Amino acid sequence: MKEPNSVKFIRYKSLPSTNQKLYQLAEQGAEAFTVVWCDAQTHGKGYAGNQWLSSDNQNLTFSFLLKNLDLKDQAYLNRWVANCLHQFLTDWQFPVKVKWPNDLILNRKKLGGILIENRIKHDKIDFSVIGIGLNVFQRDFGMLNATSLACFNVDFNEDLAQLLEQIMSVFSQNYHLILDKKFDEINDYYLKSLFVKDQVATYEHNGILQNGILRGITPEGKALIELENKPIQAFAHKEIRLLY
């Protein structure tokens, strides 16, 4: 089994976007497991064009690089990333859940998010830039339904740099699951950590609020949801919205 490259950290005081910077470095030949992180991110991106907002020196905003993956790895990459973060946080006794497709939830509030940007070349993933935002010390989120590790545990005081090193260690240790294509194992873990799975919840679909139950995830990453009085249907992100 091929071992991942050693992790290389590159820290910036301020960046518009860690994903944008790492994408540029990847185009210039940066190695796998290069990590770009910053104290202040001014134009962070979230999934599907949403903006990621973070207070300076309060949270972790970082991106890391993977290279030369198969196209069929793409559908499971987001699940693998979410699983690694879930594993790390639950080891720290934070009872997080993963909200499909890419959010971390703690006490029914958003703790963090994932954004993956792939460059496809010759039917392969030339490289993947994996961006992560994790609320650590921030306490004031205004009207946003968000939280942080310190909001949940007022005694939490881990150094951000050390926290990032620990997170990347989990990714490095679990990288073999992607390389060895352990997709069933990845999917099984993901399903067990899903927020409101097999629970009645409120969804918005075509402008209408309906009760529904999340039953699973397709191999392509769509959500299998059983809306009220309807058979189970597969939904892509933005086709349906969970209200929580």
From TrEMBL:
Keywords: Ligase. It comes from the Bacteria. The keyword Ligase applies. Gene3D superfamilies: Bira Bifunctional Protein, Domain 2. It holds the Pfam family BPL_LplA_LipB. SUPFAM superfamilies: Class II aaRS and biotin synthetases. GO terms for cellular component: cytoplasm. Residues 1-179 form the BPL/LPL catalytic domain. GO terms for molecular function: biotin--[biotin carboxyl-carrier protein] ligase activity. This is BirA, biotin-(Acetyl-CoA-carboxylase) ligase. It comes from Ornithobacterium rhinotracheale (strain ATCC 51463 / DSM 15997 / CCUG 23171 / CIP 104009 / LMG 9086).
